[in-house]
Amino acid sequence: xxxxxxxxxxxxxxxxxxxxxxxxxxxxxxxxxxxxxxxxxxxxxxxxxxxxxxxxxxxxxxxxxxxxxxxxxxxxxxxxxxxxxxxxxxxxxxxxxxxxxxxxxxxxxxxxxxxxxxxxxxxxxxxxxxxxxxxxxxxxxxxxxxxxxxxxxxxxxxxxxxxxxxxxxxxxxxxxxxxxxxxxxxxxxxxxxxxxxxxxxxxxxxxxxxxxxxxxxxxxxxxxxxxxxxxxxxxxxxxxxxxxxxxxxxxxxxxxxxxxxxxxxxxxxxxxxxxxxxxxxxxxxxxxxxxxxxxxxxxxxxxxxxxxxxxxxxxxxxxxxxxxxxxxxxxxxxxxxx
Length: 338
Ligand code: PEP
Ligand code: MN
Known about the structure:
Blueprint lengths: L1 E4 L5 H15 L2 E6 L4 E6 L7 H5 L4 E5 L19 E3 L2 E3 L5 E5 L6 H14 L3 E3 L17 H14 L3 E5 L5 H7 L2 E4 L7 H8 L5 E4 L6 H13 L5 E5 L17 H8 L4 E3 L1 H5 L2 H13 L4 E5 L17 H17 L5
Parallel strand pairs: 7-8, 7-14, 8-9, 9-10, 10-11, 11-12, 12-13, 13-14
Antiparallel strand pairs: 1-3, 1-4, 2-3, 5-6
Bound molecules: phosphoenolpyruvate and manganese (II) ion.
């Protein structure tokens, strides 16, 4: 439920209204102070809130019911786009954000070299897996804490904020120390205990869509994080499972405009895991920008053939640089920039 307030209402009135609503109806209030209009979102069990009575409050212009189960992530609750600032990098604003780096951190030298390469090409965020959720327990599992340490060193050299995946709530302290944006991977999108724990901090979360999850389920997972108090969520479409076997997953391009309509949160696309093949990454990346993605997450390796994970889908730094040139042209054609 959303209360659209009258235009001349003062801050004291808004505070008093929120207090009344919270104590009387046992709901949480979420005021958004807009330039033109202030709205107050109500979350929790709103079934006992008497719509008639509330719409007659002096300060209330009208009451809007929100049918969707996601509230804080809902664009109706927050009509403007959410723009995050991560160490000076704006996410969700006019610029399309490029996040690049290897699937996994394999050693210190490779991550430092790749970080320098992707930065020179135009990336503003560095990705690298340290805790790798692999299908096989016999496959490379990541360097774990050592990997995070190397990422931090790469950040010290390049200034690029770090994105890395968490796989378990027990790693949170470590991630708070090292990682600027905590990634929740497709396999953990519905690990609700992990989401709740991440919601108790303010560190930005890059939440990837599970390969068999609907758009609404993705939004409900964002809601888990936000309902605990962390509003800093970025969504990421990374391909879903379909009957098609020519690509690793099927990139659901329609999810981007759908998400942009339903939520105010920034939306990224990962064309690397979506396609599984380096040669398809560039066309999908360009398409993602064309349909409104706020950022791209792309795997880049200095020797894809020798990579310990996801070799076939990783780009060389020079291939990534070529992609960035074309991405800039596409972004400019729709009134954005890199
Ligand atoms: C990754 O980005 O490293 C990754 C494992 O992606 P996903 O969770 O989308 O499979
Ligand atoms: Mn990977």
